[in-house]
C-alpha cells in the first residue's frame, strides 16, 4: 500500500500562530499539522448546546461521582469504627473485610464509571489520522553509524596490536571471575560433605543418638510400644532425638503400620525376598518412610482396604504389602523401609537408618 | 525603581516559559498531546495487567511493613485461638498477625493475592490477543519476547510470593520445588543444597525468597514493563484494517484528553474489581493450613492457577526413569524442567518461525483477523488445549472427588487427552477459520441474505440478496475484494432497521429522521420488520 496524503495533515498550509484572528482550535490544528495528524471528524455527541440529552448525561455523571464519594467516605468510616479485632465465633468483626471490600469496590467502580462516562458520552467524537513514519534510517545514516563504530575500533587498534588482544583477555577475565566468585561462591553448599552426608541419612541414624539406636516417637516425643498401634492402624512417627519432629529432620517422618496378620504374612514374604528389606519388619509391624520418592510430599493417605499409600500431591500410589513398590502415578521408586525392633524397655527403635535413600530421586543416588 | 507586582494570571505562563527555557519541553509535549491511538476493546487487555501490577506494588509495600521473613521457631500467642501454643516459624506467625491483628491487614493481603491472580490472567488473555491477531509480527517481535519474559517473571514472582507465609500449603510447594531442582542431571543436588543453604528446608529459604520477591523480581519486572510500554509508544500501536486505515497510518483519537481519561477510568474500575474480590472472596486462608510440617499435607493441595499446568504435567508424566550407568534422570525432569523450558522458548521463537515459513519480511502494522491465518489459529488453539488439559489435570484429584470419578481414570484421561485433544483442536479450529473465510467471500460475491423469498414465474423459490456494491447489467452483484475486515452479514448492519430511540423509560429526544436509501422504499422496510 502506498502512503496517502491527507488534506489537513501534511497537505494543509501552515498558518502563523501569532495571528490574532485565529481561534484556539485553529492553533490546535496547526499543532496537529506539524505532527502530521489530520482530524477527519470532530463532532459533539449532542444536537446543540445544553440539549435535554446532554443535561441528562451530565446529571448521571455527577450522580456517579457523588456515589463514589459517599462509598469512599463509608469505607473510611467502616475502617475506623467497625469492630475489626478478631474474636472467635460469629461476631461483627467477621464482616470487617467484606464491608471494606464492598465500600471501597463501589467507590472505585463508581469513580471509574464516572470518568469513563465523561470521556465516552460527553467529549466530542473524533477520528484522527496520524502518519506512522516507521521508516528505517536512511542508507547514508546507516553507513555513517557503521563506519563510525568501525573507525572507533580502528582507533583502539586492537586488530593491529595482537599483544593487546591477548593481554585484554588475560587481564580482564580474572576481574570478571572475581566479581562473580563471592556472589556464587558464598551460596554453594556441598550436599555430600561430612561422614554422614545429609542426602543419605535421616534422624534415625544412630549418629544422632551417640551411636545408640534411635527410638520411634510421637510428635510430642513420647516413645511407642507395639500395643499402642491397633491392628490395621497406622501412626506417623519421628526419630526420638532433640528436634526430631521438627523441620530440621524433614526427611525423617515415617509411617508405622500394624498390619492384619494375613497381610503381614504377604508383606514379610515380599520383604524377605528382597536383600535390603530382609528382616526389617517386627512382628506384624512395618515402617515406611513417609516422604514420597517422587516429589517429597508426605505420602500420607493410607487406604486400609487395598493396603495402598497415596501421595496427595501427584497421586503416586504404593503397595504396602509389596515393599511399598509404586503401582500407579509418576513415582518410580519404592518407599524405603525402616528396620524395626524393640528395645529392652519394650519401645520401638530403629535397628539402623533407612537402607534406601529417602526422598525425591536425584542424579547420583546410589 | 518600582517593585514589580506579581501577576497571578501570568504565573502559569511564566512557569511554563521557565520550564521550556531549561528543558525544551514544548515540542515533545506537543507530540505527546497529539499522539493518536487506535481504539478497540481488545487493546485494553494488557492494561489490566499493568493496573494489577500497580495495585500489587501498592499493597505489597504495605505487607512488607508487617512481614518478618525469618524461619526462627516461635510459639504462637496471638488472637487466633486455634493455633495458640503451636510452634511455627516467625514468617508464618507474622503472616497470621498481619491477617488478624493489623487493621485492614487481611483485606490488603487478599487484595495483593487477587491482584496477582488477575495480573497473570490478564497477561495470558492479552498474549492470546497478540498471538491470534498477528500483532507479534515484524517489527514487534522483541516486544513479544519481552511479554513472554514478563509472564515467566510473574510466574516466579507468584511462586516466591505464596511461599513466603510458610504455611502448610506453601511449604509443600517449596518441597516440590526442591525436588524439581534435584531432578537436574549432574548439578541437581548441588543446586538444591545451594539454594536452600543445605538440606531442605533449612533456615534460609524464606529470607532468600523474600529478597527475590520484594526486590529482585519486581525490579526486573518494572524495568521490562517500562521497555514494553516504551516500545509500544515508539513503534505506535497496531490497528485493525478498515476504512482509511493503512499500514502507514494510525486511525483513532488523540491521546488527550479522551483516550487518557478512558484509561484512568478503566484503572479505577480494575482497582474496584480487585477491591470487591478481596473483600468478598476468601483467598489463601493460611490459618486453616497450619504451619508447614514435613509430615503433614492436606488433600487437594493445589498451587495458584498459573502454576497448575506444571503440577498437572508432573501428575500425568508416566514413571519412566532413565538410567545411565550408575546415574539416573528422574521422570519429573521432563515435565518440570524440559516442559517448562519448552513452553517458554518455543513461543519466544514463534514470530521468526512464522516469518520464515511464510517468507515474510515485510513490516506489519495492520492486524489480521484470526480467520485469515487458520494455521496460526490452529497452532494457538493446540497450545491452549495442551495448557488447559495440563491445568485441569493439576486439579484432577478435586475433580475426581467432586464428580465421583476414579482418580486413576482421571490421570489416564489426562494422559490421553494431552496427546489427542491438541491435534483435534488444531483440526477443528482450522476448519472453523476456513468456513468463516468462505462465508465472508460468499457475502462479498452475492450480497447479504435479506430473508425475503421470491417466487419466480416458473414456480421456483429464490432468496433475494442485497448486494454490497454495484451490480452489473443483469442485476448481479460485481464481486468485491476482501479487505481484511468485518463483512456485514445482516440487513440491520446495512441500516435496514429504524434508528434506536434514546432514553430508558421515555424518549429524551425526538429520533433523528432515518436515512432512507433511494433504492430501498419505505414499504420494503416494513416488510423486513414483519418478516422477522
- Major sheet of chain A: 4 strands, antiparallel
Compute the number of strand runs of chain B: 8
Structural class of chain A: alpha+beta
User: Which structural class fits the helix and strand makeup of chain B?
Assistant: mainly alpha
Number of strands of chain A: 12
Reconstruct the topology from this structure.
The complex is a heterodimer of chains A (366) and B (532).
Chain A: H1 24-34, E1 37-43, H2 52-81, H3 96-122, E2 125-131, H4 139-156, H5 162-185, E3 216-217, E4 234-239, E5 254-258, H6 261-272, E6 285-289, E7 301-303, E8 308-310, E9 317-319, E10 325-328, E11 340-342, E12 348-350
Antiparallel strand pairs in A: 1-2, 3-4, 4-5, 5-6, 7-8, 8-9, 9-10, 11-12
Chain B: H1 11-23, H2 26-34, E1 36-37, H3 45-64, E2 73-75, E3 87-89, H4 90-100, H5 105-132, H6 141-163, H7 168-182, H8 188-196, H9 205-235, E4 249-254, H10 255-280, H11 286-289, H12 305-316, E5 322-324, E6 327-329, H13 333-358, H14 374-393, H15 396-402, H16 407-446, E7 448-455, E8 461-466, H17 522-530
Antiparallel strand pairs in B: 1-4, 2-3, 5-6, 7-8
Describe this structure in words.
The complex is a heterodimer of chains A (366) and B (532). Chain A has 6 helices and 12 strands. With 366 residues, chain A is α+β, with helices and mostly antiparallel strands. In chain A, the strands form 4 sheets. Chain A has a 4-stranded antiparallel β-sheet with strand order 3-4-5-6, with no helix packed on it. In chain A, strands 7-8-9-10 form a 4-stranded antiparallel β-sheet, with no helix packed on it. In chain A, helix 2 (52-81) packs antiparallel against helix 3. The relative contact order of chain A is 0.07. Chain B is mainly alpha-helical. In chain B, 57% of the residues lie in helices and 6% in strands. Chain B has helices at residues 11-23, 26-34, 45-64, 90-100, 105-132, 141-163, 168-182, 188-196, 205-235, 255-280, 286-289, 305-316, 333-358, 374-393, 396-402, 407-446, 522-530, and strands at residues 36-37, 73-75, 87-89, 249-254, 322-324, 327-329, 448-455, 461-466. In chain B, the strands form 4 sheets. In chain B, strands 1-4 form a two-stranded antiparallel sheet. A two-stranded antiparallel sheet of chain B has the order 2-3. Chain B has a two-stranded antiparallel sheet with strand order 5-6. The longest helix of chain B has 40 residues, at 407-446. Chain B is globular, with a radius of gyration of 30 Å. The N and C termini of chain B lie far apart (86 Å). The relative contact order of chain B is 0.09. Chains A and B meet through helix 1, helix 2, helix 3 and strand 2 of A and helix 2, helix 5, helix 7, helix 8 and strand 4 of B. Strand 2 (125-131) of chain A pairs antiparallel with strand 4 of chain B, so a sheet runs across the interface.
Amino acid at each position: 500500500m502506498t502512503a496517502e496524503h491527507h488534506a489537513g495533515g501534511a497537505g494543509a498550509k501552515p498558518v502563523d500562530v501569532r495571528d490574532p484572528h485565529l481561534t484556539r482550535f485553529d492553533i490546535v490544528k496547526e499543532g496537529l499539522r506539524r505532527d502530521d495528524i489530520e482530524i477527519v471528524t470532530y463532532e459533539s455527541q449532542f444536537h446543540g448546546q445544553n440539549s435535554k440529552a446532554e443535561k441528562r448525561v451530565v446529571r448521571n455523571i455527577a450522580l456517579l461521582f457523588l456515589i463514589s464519594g459517599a462509598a469512599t467516605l463509608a469505607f473510611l468510616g467502616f475502617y475506623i469504627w467497625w469492630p475489626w479485632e478478631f474474636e472467635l465465633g460469629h461476631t461483627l468483626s467477621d464482616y470487617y473485610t467484606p464491608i471494606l471490600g464492598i465500600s471501597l469496590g463501589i467507590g472505585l467502580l463508581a469513580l471509574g464509571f464516572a470518568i469513563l462516562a465523561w470521556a465516552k458520552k460527553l467529549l466530542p467524537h473524533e477520528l484522527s489520522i496520524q502518519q506512522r513514519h516507521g521508516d528505517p534510517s536512511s542508507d547514508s545514516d546507516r553507513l555513517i553509524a557503521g563506519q563510525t563504530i568501525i573507525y572507533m575500533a580502528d582507533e583502539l587498534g586492537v586488530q593491529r596490536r595482537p599483544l593487546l588482544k591477548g593481554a585484554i583477555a588475560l587481564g580482564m577475565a580474572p576481574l570478571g571471575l572475581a566479581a562473580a566468585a563471592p556472589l556464587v561462591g558464598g551460596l554453594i553448599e556441598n550436599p555430600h560433605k561430612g561422614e554422614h552426608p545429609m542426602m543419605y541419612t535421616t534422624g534415625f541414624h544412630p549418629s544422632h543418638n551417640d551411636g545408640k539406636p534411635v527410638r520411634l516417637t510421637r510428635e510430642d516425643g513420647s516413645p511407642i510400644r507395639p500395643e499402642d498401634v491397633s491392628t490395621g492402624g497406622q501412626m506417623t512417627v519421628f526419630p526420638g532425638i532433640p528436634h526430631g519432629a521438627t523441620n530440621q529432620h524433614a526427611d525423617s517422618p515415617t509411617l508405622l503400620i500394624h498390619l492384619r496378620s494375613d497381610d503381614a504374612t504377604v508383606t514379610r514374604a515380599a520383604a524377605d525376598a528382597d536383600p535390603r528389606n530382609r528382616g526389617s519388619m517386627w512382628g506384624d509391624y512395618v515402617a515406611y518412610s513417609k516422604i514420597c520418592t517422587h516429589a517429597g510430599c508426605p505420602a500420607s493417605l493410607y487406604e486400609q482396604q487395598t493396603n495402598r499409600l497415596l501421595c496427595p500431591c501427584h497421586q503416586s500410589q504404593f503397595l504396602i504389602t509389596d515393599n511399598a513398590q509404586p503401582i500407579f502415578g509418576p513415582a518410580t521408586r519404592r518407599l524405603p523401609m525402616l528396620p524395626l525392633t524393640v528395645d529392652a524397655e519394650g519401645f520401638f527403635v530403629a535397628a539402623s537408618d533407612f537402607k534406601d535413600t529417602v526422598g525425591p530421586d536425584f542424579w547420583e543416588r546410589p | 525603581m518600582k517593585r514589580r507586582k506579581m501577576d497571578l494570571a501570568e504565573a502559569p505562563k511564566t512557569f511554563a516559559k521557565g520550564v521550556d527555557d531549561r528543558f525544551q519541553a514544548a515540542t515533545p509535549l506537543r507530540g505527546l498531546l497529539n499522539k493518536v491511538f487506535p481504539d478497540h476493546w481488545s487493546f485494553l487487555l494488557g492494561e489490566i495487567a499493568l493496573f494489577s501490577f500497580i495495585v500489587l506494588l501498592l499493597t505489597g509495600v504495605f505487607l512488607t511493613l508487617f512481614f518478618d521473613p525469618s524461619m526462627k521457631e516461635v510459639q504462637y500467642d496471638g488472637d487466633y485461638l486455634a493455633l495458640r501454643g503451636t510452634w511455627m516459624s516467625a514468617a508464618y506467625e507474622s503472616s497470621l498477625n498481619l491477617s488478624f491483628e493489623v487493621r485492614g491487614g487481611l483485606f490488603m493481603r487478599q487484595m495483593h493475592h487477587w491482584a496477582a491472580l488477575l495480573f497473570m490472567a490478564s497477561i495470558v488473555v492479552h498474549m492470546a490477543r497478540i498471538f491470534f491477531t498477528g500483532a507479534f509480527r515484524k517489527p514487534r517481535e522483541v516486544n513479544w519476547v519481552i511479554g513472554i519474559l514478563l509472564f515467566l517473571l510473574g510466574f516466579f514472582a507468584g511462586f516466591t510470593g505464596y511461599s513466603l507465609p510458610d504455611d502448610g500449603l506453601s511449604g509443600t510447594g517449596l518441597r516440590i520445588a526442591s525436588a524439581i531442582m534435584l531432578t537436574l542431571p549432574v548439578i541437581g543436588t548441588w543446586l538444591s543444597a545451594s539454594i536452600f543453604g543445605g538440606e531442605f528446608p533449612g533456615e534460609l529459604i524464606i529470607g532468600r525468597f523474600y529478597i527475590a520477591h520484594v526486590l529482585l523480581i519486581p525490579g526486573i519486572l518494572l524495568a521490562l514493563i517500562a521497555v514494553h510500554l516504551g516500545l509500544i509508544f515508539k513503534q505506535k500501536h497496531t490497528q485493525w484494517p478498515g476504512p482509511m486505515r493503512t499500514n502507514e497510518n494510525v486511525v483513532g483519537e488523540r491521546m488527550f484528553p479522551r483516550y487518557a481519561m478512558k484509561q484512568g477510568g478503566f484503572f479505577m474500575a480494575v482497582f474496584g474489581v480487585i477491591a470487591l474480590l478481596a473483600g468478598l472472596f476468601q483467598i489463601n486462608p493460611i490459618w486453616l493450613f497450619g504451619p508447614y510440617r514435613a509430615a503433614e499435607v492436606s488433600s487437594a493441595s493445589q498451587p495458584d492457577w498459573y502454576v497448575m499446568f506444571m503440577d498437572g504435567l508432573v501428575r500425568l508424566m508416566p514413571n519412566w526413569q532413565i538410567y545411565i550407568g550408575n546415574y539416573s534422570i528422574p521422570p519429573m525432569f521432563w515435565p518440570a524442567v524440559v516442559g517448562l523450558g519448552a513452553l517458554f522458548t518455543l513461543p519466544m521463537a514463534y514470530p521468526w518461525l512464522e516469518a520464515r515459513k511464510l517468507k515474510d519480511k515485510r513490516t506489519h502494522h495492520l492486524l489480521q483477523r484470526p480467520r485469515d491465518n487458520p494455521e496460526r489459529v490452529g497452532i494457538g488453539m493446540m497450545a491452549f488445549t495442551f495448557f488447559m488439559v495440563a491445568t485441569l489435570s493439576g486439579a484432577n484429584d478435586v475433580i475426581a472427588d467432586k464428580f465421583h470419578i476414579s482418580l486413576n481414570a482421571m490421570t489416564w484421561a489426562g494422559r490421553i487427552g494431552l496427546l489427542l485433544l491438541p491435534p483435534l483442536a488444531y483440526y477443528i479450529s482450522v476448519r472453523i477459520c476456513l468456513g468463516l473465510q468462505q462465508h465472508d467471500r460468499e457475502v462479498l460475491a452475492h450480497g447479504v441474505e435479506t430473508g425475503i423469498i421470491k417466487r419466480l414465474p416458473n414456480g421456483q423459490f429464490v432468496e433475494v440478496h442485497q448486494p454490497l456494491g454495484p451490480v452489473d447489467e443483469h442485476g448481479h452483484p460485481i464481486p468485491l475484494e476482501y479487505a481484511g475486515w468485518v463483512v456485514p452479514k445482516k440487513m440491520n448492519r446495512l441500516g435496514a432497521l429504524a434508528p434506536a430511540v434514546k432514553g430508558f423509560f421515555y424518549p429524551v429526544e425526538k429520533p433523528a429522521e432515518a436515512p432512507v436509501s433511494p433504492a430501498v422504499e419505505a414499504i420494503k422496510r416494513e416488510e423486513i420488520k414483519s418478516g422477522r
